[in-house]
């Protein structure tokens, strides 16, 4: 019998609908059984740099993340241990001083743009999902979200998109599609795909007597 939690990875470009898909899966299980972890919480702490320099960092490159810490935390959670999860602040471009106690659960959803890039992360996952949404839809969603929620101007979103988000997507994110078990077009509105994923998770949990 499998004695470890199930890890589901949900990836795709920024604005593809990763969070919406993850939330839809999360909402169908009771929260004592499932939890969501964002790769974004594991952006490197840049608190030692002045704000102007933090603004210029390429946040779409694999090296922007503290992947060793993320792997360490995942291994602990898979071992039924709690971790102190970092909290990331997009407005100040760095980690906040607080952390959140993350308790272990039977199902962990890990969501983020580069979670399939590192083989050590891929090896930990039971189900790998790639949310595939056209570039034009993603940039429109991102403009709205970054201006409403992340304290950005229209010009800054466009500049960042052209200089980092788009090239890094094509260099690092889109190529990880080949590692996925399932490609979900259009994200959170794809109810057929989301239902299939929920059914799969339910069947694993009930087979292992965890439901
Ligand atoms: N199907 C959709 N239609 C319209 N807006 C959407 C849809 N899916 C997501 N959004 C919006 O787009 C933004 C990005 O979606 P999100 O799920 O957070 O994507 P990601 O996590 O991949 O960046 C959010 O503001 C969300 O509300
Ligand atoms: N300080 C930061 C850190 C990250 N970003 C952008 O966030 C994107 C990933 O988050 P999604 O929810 O959109 O997947 C990524 O594309 C980074 O460019 C940022 O703008 N500022």
- Overall number of structural domains: 1
User: How many angstroms does the end-to-end distance come to?
Assistant: 14 Å
Task: Give the mean pLDDT.
Answer: 94
Number of helices: 7
Give the low-pLDDT segments: none
Strand content: 15-25%
- SS-based class: alpha/beta
Q: Output the CATH class name.
A: Alpha Beta
Helix content: 40-55%
Return Rg in Å: 17 Å
CATH superfamily: P-loop containing nucleotide triphosphate hydrolases
Q: What is the total tally of β strands? A: 7
Reported for the largest beta sheet, the result is:
5 strands, parallel
Q: Would you list the SSEs in sequence order as H and E?
A: EHEHHEEEHEHHEH
Report the CATH architecture.
Answer: 3-Layer(aba) Sandwich
CATH topology: Rossmann fold
Shape descriptor reads globular
| Largest sheet, spatial ordering of strands | 2-5-1-6-7
- Small molecules bound in the structure, each named once: adenosine-5'-diphosphate, the ligand Nc1ccn([C@@H]2O[C@H](COP(=O)(O)O)[C@@H](O)[C@H]2O)c(=O)n1
């Amino acid at each position: 019998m499998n004695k470890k939690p199930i890890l589901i990875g949900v990836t795709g470009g920024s604005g593809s609908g990763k969070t919406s898909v993850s939330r839809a899966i999360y909402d169908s299980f009771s929260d004592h059984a499932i939890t969501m972890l964002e790769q974004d919480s594991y952006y490197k702490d840049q608190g030692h740099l002045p704000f102007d320099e933090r603004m210029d960092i390429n946040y779409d490159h694999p090296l922007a993340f503290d992947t060793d810490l993320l792997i360490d935390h995942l291994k602990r959670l898979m071992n039924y241990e709690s971790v102190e999860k970092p909290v990331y602040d997009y407005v100040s471009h760095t980690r906040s001083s607080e952390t959140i106690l993350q308790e272990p659960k039977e199902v962990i959803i890990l969501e983020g743009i580069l979670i399939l890039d590192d083989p050590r992360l891929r090896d930990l996952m039971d189900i790998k999902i790639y949310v595939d949404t056209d570039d034009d839809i993603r940039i429109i969603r991102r403009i709205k979200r970054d201006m409403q929620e992340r304290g950005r101007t229209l010009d800054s979103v466009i500049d960042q998109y052209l200089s980092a988000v788009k090239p890094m997507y094509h260099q690092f994110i889109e190529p990880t599609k080949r590692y996925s078990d399932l490609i979900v077009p259009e994200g959170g509105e794809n109810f057929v795909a989301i239902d299939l994923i929920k059914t799969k998770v339910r069947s694993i949990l009930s087979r292992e007597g965890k439901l």
